[in-house]
From TrEMBL:
This is Hypoxanthine phosphoribosyltransferase. Belongs to the purine/pyrimidine phosphoribosyltransferase family. The gene is hpt. Pathway: Purine metabolism; IMP biosynthesis via salvage pathway; IMP from hypoxanthine: step 1/1; Purine metabolism; GMP biosynthesis via salvage pathway; GMP from guanine: step 1/1. Residues 12-160 form the Phosphoribosyltransferase domain. It is an enzyme of class 2 (transferase).
Length: 180
């Protein structure tokens, strides 16, 4: 049923799993003996984060933030609201934000700056998808699985109006779905 709204599959489930395994191996090396805090940005990061951590063979801690900037539309509003903050002090800790997509970059730039103010030892970003054409601020991920074109995508955690998160792949949403 959901597939009828998808114009094209951009990244398959198999490609996502392989990329998460490769990134997990890299993070294992980079964070060996550091006990980092991986902060998932809710809600979209959940499927990617769940897949990614299965491939990490070193101690990590998990936490989550719920941050809103889309407010039901198809483009970031630029207004960042922290709805749920992390539950621990990150001073002196290595932090890795796990994100589903970097589009405008505003959310992660604000979060990175906030965590630097909170005196994190390091603040890095891992993202499933990077959409550089959508960028309105200067920010790059430290770890990127896929760079995608400037299309409106859903699936594997990404949504349109809270729908399509459960697709097992990332696909381009047909324009008629969100321009009705």
């Amino acid at each position: 049923m959901l597939e009828q709204d998808i114009k094209k599959v951009l990244v398959s489930h198999e490609e996502i799993t392989a990329a998460a395994e490769k990134l997990g191996q890299q993070l294992t090396k980079d964070y060996q003996e550091k006990n980092p805090i991986f902060v998932g940005i809710l809600k979209g990061s959940v499927p990617f984060m769940a897949e990614l951590i299965k491939h990490i063979d070193t101690h990590i801690e998990l936490d989550f933030m719920l941050v809103s900037s889309y407010h039901g539309g198809t483009a970031s509003s630029g207004v960042i609201n922290i709805i749920k903050d992390i539950n621990q002090d990150i001073a002196g800790r290595d932090v890795l934000f796990i994100e589903d997509i970097i589009d405008t970059g505003q959310t992660l730039k604000n979060l990175r700056d906030l965590f630097k103010e909170r005196k994190a030892a390091s603040v890095k970003i891992a993202t499933l998808l990077d959409k550089p054409e959508g960028r309105v601020v200067e920010i790059d991920a430290d770890y990127t699985c896929f760079t995608i074109p400037n299309e409106f995508v859903v699936g594997y955690g990404l949504d349109y109006d809270e729908k399509y998160r459960n697709l097992p792949y990332v696909g381009i949403l047909k324009e008629e779905v969100y321009t009705k």
